[in-house]
Design goal:
single chain; 270 residues; alpha/beta; five-stranded mixed β-sheet; three-stranded mixed β-sheet; globular
């Protein structure tokens, strides 16, 4: 039976953090039967998996949360999206929720808020000091059916957010998440945090998020979404105006950037 929300989470070397993160989701949900937690582990990280099996999974069982675990040959942070794409392939939820083991859910009944949405949207909760990027984006199952991936690039949150903003479907929801990351809270300055190379900052590198080939790929994704929206009878004038230069694709992002956190980042022209 399909669940409401599939929570996608790749984790390594974090035990207490992971437990706190997952239980924050379960303990603030209106109904744990709405949840499906999908976990990705590296097959050389048996210590984490065995600890979770003993200390976390029984807690999820007690709360009536569905879950599944997948094991992978280690791909590392540089291929983070591949873990999440694989989790999408087994997800049963109507919504796919990109989650992190350093995230804490703060909003009661958050699952109800997500399940109220019936349209094809990228949902953005408030996190990371209200960063305008959807740091923990939520997309409909149709997203994965359409593309065959959550994100084709390592920067999952940025990819989904930029596509959502560009095509005009990113929607803020009244859900708050604490991103308990070292540079934000002073907590969790561990090896997982330190060893996370980012494919961003050198657009001449073909792997870089802002390389012209990736920019073009995001435009292609927007085109596919636009065609789907049109087939559902939705207004696609935002994207049509973006393409001809009459609409700033980043207008909504700038409006959400209340703390000027995007100043140092490159926003590509369509």
């Amino acid at each position: 039976m399909s669940t409401g929300i599939s929570i996608l989470l790749a984790t390594r070397g974090r035990t207490d953090m992971l437990k706190k993160s997952l239980l924050s989701l379960a303990d603030t949900a209106s109904d744990c039967k709405n949840l499906e937690i999908l976990l990705a582990f590296d097959n050389d990280d048996t210590e984490t998996y065995e600890w979770v099996e003993e200390n976390v999974l029984p807690e999820l069982d007690y709360r009536g949360v569905n879950y599944s675990c997948m094991s992978f040959a280690r791909m590392g942070y540089i291929r983070l999206n591949e873990y999440y794409n694989a989790l999408c392939d087994i997800a049963a939820g109507k919504w796919l929720f990109f989650w992190g083991d350093d995230a804490i859910m703060e909003t009661p009944n958050w699952d109800k808020i997500i399940l109220q949405e019936t349209k094809f949207r990228v949902l953005r909760a408030s996190a990371h000091n209200n960063h305008p990027v959807a740091i923990f984006p939520i997309v409909p199952q149709k997203w994965y059916e359409m593309f065959g991936y959550f994100s084709p690039h390592q920067l999952n949150d940025n990819w989904v957010s930029q596509v959502g903003y560009m095509v005009g479907i990113l929607e803020n929801i009244p859900v708050t998440i604490t991103h308990d990351r070292f540079d934000l809270t002073g907590n969790n300055n561990d090896e997982t945090y330190k060893n996370r190379p980012m494919l961003e900052g050198n657009p001449r590198d073909p792997r870089d998020f802002h390389h012209p080939a990736w920019n073009a790929r995001r435009v292609e994704d927007c085109e596919r979404i636009s065609k789907y929206l049109q087939s559902q009878g939705e207004d696609i004038s935002w994207w049509e105006n973006v393409k001809i230069g009459k609409q700033d694709p980043w207008e909504k992002l700038k409006a959400n950037d209340t703390n000027s956190q995007m100043v140092q980042f490159q926003l590509n022209r369509v």
